[in-house]
Amino acid sequence: QIEPILTGNLPPGFDTSTCRSVYVGNIHVQVTEALLREVFQSAGSVDGCKLIRKEKSSYGFVDYYERGSAALAILTLNRKQIFGQPIRVNWAYASGQREDTTDHFHIFVGDLSPEVTDSALFAFFSAYSPNCSDARVMWDQKTGRSRGYGFVSFRNQQVC
């Protein structure tokens, strides 16, 4: 079974084994819900589709009947250009699944390779400290590419 490489902003420890929904970001303003559904049906039968409109760039969620269809959508549709704008496709998750890092200590990490994801950055730092609570790579919304830097959060200052 082919599985997508985890990309973007997934919470550490996120389990994709039962997930049937994908998040779609960086959607061009001309894309309609009907077009979004049509594009994502190329990966499998769509159960539901929701488009959230923003002024410059919209986002949405696509629910599949089968988990394998969601995995295929991530593999085949991430960075696909619609109206000349690359969409970002990843597993959908509830925002409450991320640990609140408001009171944590954050460090800047620069000179990251373009293929480094949140998950990879978190895995690297958490291997050295169980106090690592989050890692985020900064992405360019227009190009869908990494900006080459990110931030890592820790539960205590001494570890930083």
Can you tell me about this structure?
The chain is of the alpha+beta class and 160 residues long. It has two domains: 75 residues, 2-Layer Sandwich (Alpha-Beta Plaits); 56 residues, Alpha-Beta Plaits (2-Layer Sandwich), CATH 3.30.70. It has a four-stranded antiparallel beta sheet with strand order 2-3-1-6, with helices on one face. Strands 7-9-8 form a three-stranded antiparallel beta sheet, with helices on one face. The longest helix has 11 residues.
Structure keywords:
RRM_dom, alpha+beta, 3-stranded antiparallel sheet, 2 domains, 3 helices, disordered N terminus, 160 residues, Alpha-Beta Plaits, RRM domain-containing protein, 4-stranded antiparallel sheet, globular
What's the structural domain tally? Answer: 2
Q: What is the terminal-to-terminal distance? A: 39 Å
Mean pLDDT: 84
Number of helices: 3
Helix content: 10-25%
Low-confidence runs of at least 5 consecutive residues: 1-8
Kindly report the spatial arrangement of strands forming the biggest sheet: 2-3-1-6
What is the fold named in CATH at topology level of the largest domain? Alpha-Beta Plaits
Question: What is the CATH class of the largest domain?
Answer: Alpha Beta
Secondary structure class reads alpha+beta
Q: Which CATH-level-2 architecture of the largest domain?
A: 2-Layer Sandwich
Count of beta strands: 9
Net shape: globular
Largest sheet: 4 strands, antiparallel
